[in-house]
């Protein structure tokens, strides 16, 4: 029943940036057990999820990874079972005979290989948590297991590279500051040419009202989005700034390494404090938003300012009449892709819809939608070129949803979705253009 | 045999069952939750979250969102199980005369008691058979099942089957059962009713309860812990109300 899916082949060799030392192959099982034992002591979610599953199978048909790959180990229940069987052997309470009945199994090198393979085929999209009667959120298990694998020295080259870029330059693309500044000047000229107005894209302005934290891809590849944001702030008359310390809202630490996640968040909070802003506004990025929204207060709080999302900020301007949109600038049929970490992960469901309805003429809902929406297949950093086969397989259920809407434009306001969806749509021959919500707002904005 | 299964085992079962269950819950409660894991949309208040949890526990709403057939089997089984457990408690305590409290004559009450008990038991059996067939019939389900999953089903089939057998073919007088259980609770044991079907039924229940705290059946308690993680309210920090 399974179509063989190649595991992501490239493991990072140099983990100095994560301050981790690789563990020798023969020592991995022992080290893994120690790490798992530690995690069970401070992650209630992990322990509960390993304890309360009844193998009812309600999650299987809801997981895009299983639907797209047909690999039985990609059913959320089977994926977590790879850990559960080890938990049953070494950590679960009760007589060993009882635990044997529940499939207790030793931890060997092969199991670690399976962990590496299958926990890199979970997008941490949390759709299973919506359909599981026990509320088991497989993303939590995937996050824990990727962290465990990182401590064994098993990190994908892509993830390690991103952390390194972030540490050196303050953005995931590894763009040095002078290049960013050049790029911003260029965008200001573009804005001048397009609108005839002097619309600034300021950097490091102290005591600005808003520190805007975009995805670094907005600086070079999705530049329409950043220009749109500049226009909106200009029109609303809000003083804003970027930071040279950190121009990245996507926090890859969330996917596999908690210290990296904390450090990234700390860096942004510090930048906000130094500039003395009133609030931080996060740009279009799904998991980045979840981290800011749900975790920042816990790991670096209490904060002197709120962290809000661009959509919440712009919606405030729209509702108070500080900006207006002209719908006729976006006459195409537009559908909306809910990034997992906006809808399920970050409480952004109605806000983007209210904005979309205000700035496009033909908005159609997708099925399933909102918190039931399928992941694009690139979530949790499965975005590397070397995993292209896997990416298009994981994106297959989403492609069918988009095809069914017949939309011309797919609005996907998340940096990862924006990188992943064009590839998926192209491969599955769905004729649609992928755009951010900012791009559409920028087109419709009445200056 | 009667002494072991009828007088000694019940106390061991009670200690293992209650002690094991409380122990498991204490372990869960003592592990910290480092991050807020709310899955949205979620309620804004604690009261709303508790209500959500209650709706889920009674209506199985997450299963309803998925495949309706699984919802049907699972919901039928669990609701019937709750009714049957209540029925056992009430029926044995009042010897079938509980409906006299609502104005029925003792004979009417006994007939009603039998009627409700039979329907609830039949529903329970239908739900269980459905879930068993579902697990056996599909290769996907067999892939994710292990010995313990089948064992629990077999135990439950034995318990419910023997219960229904007594209902239809070999009725045990409630009085004898009540005397026996009352004897256990007051530490003045009397002999269990001399009925093979009853002993079979009772022993299987004991075995199930012994296994309960070590098994996946703990989901009955764990459900509330694990769902709370994704249901609990989280205060917004936005400029919009």
Which structural traits does this protein have?
heterodimer; A: 447 residues; mainly alpha; Fumarate Reductase Iron-sulfur Protein, Chain B, domain 2; Rossmann fold; four-stranded parallel beta sheet; B: 241 residues; 73% helix; globular
Question: Quick one: biggest sheet of chain B?
Answer: none
The percentage helix of chain B is over 70%
- Name the poorly predicted regions of chain A: none
Shape of chain B: globular
- The fourth-level CATH homologous superfamily of chain B is Transmembrane di-heme cytochromes, Chain C
- Strand-pairing-aware structural class of chain A: mainly alpha
CATH top level of the largest domain in chain A is: Alpha Beta
| Count of β-strands of chain A | 8
Strand and helix order of chain B = HHHHHHHHHH
Number of helices of chain A: 22
The pLDDT mean of chain B sits at 92
* CATH architecture designation of the largest domain in chain A: 3-Layer(aba) Sandwich
Rg of chain B over CA atoms, rounded to whole Å, is 21 Å
Structural class of chain B: mainly alpha
- For the termini of chain A, the CA-CA separation is 57 Å
CA-to-CA gap between the ends of chain B? 69 Å
Average pLDDT for all residues of chain A: 94
- Quaternary form: heterodimer
- Biggest sheet details of chain A: 4 strands, parallel
Can you put this structure into words, describing what you see?
- The complex is a heterodimer of chains A (447) and B (241).
- By secondary structure, chain A is mainly α.
- Chain A has 3 domains: 16-155, Fumarate Reductase Iron-sulfur Protein, Chain B, domain 2; 170-319, Rossmann fold, CATH 3.40.50; 327-444, Rossmann fold (3-Layer(aba) Sandwich).
- In chain A, 52% of the residues lie in helices and 6% in strands.
- Chain A has helices spanning 28-42, 44-52, 64-69, 76-90, 96-101, 109-118, 127-131, 138-151, 157-169, 177-195, 217-220, 223-236, 253-256, 258-275, 286-300, 310-319, 340-346, 350-359, 388-394, 396-405, 415-427, 437-444; strands spanning 210-213, 240-241, 279-282, 307-309, 333-336, 362-364, 409-411, 433-435.
- In chain A, the strands form 2 sheets. A 4-stranded parallel β-sheet of chain A has the order 2-1-3-4. In chain A, strands 6-5-7-8 form a 4-stranded parallel β-sheet, with helices on both faces.
- In chain A, helix 16 (310-319) packs across helix 18 (350-359).
- The longest helix of chain A has 19 residues, at 177-195.
- Chain B has one domain (2-231): Fumarate Reductase Cytochrome B subunit (Up-down Bundle), CATH 1.20.950.20.
- The radius of gyration of chain B is 21 Å and the shape is globular.
- Chains A and B meet through helix 1, helix 2, helix 4, helix 5 and helix 7 of A and helix 1, helix 3, helix 6, helix 7 and helix 10 of B.
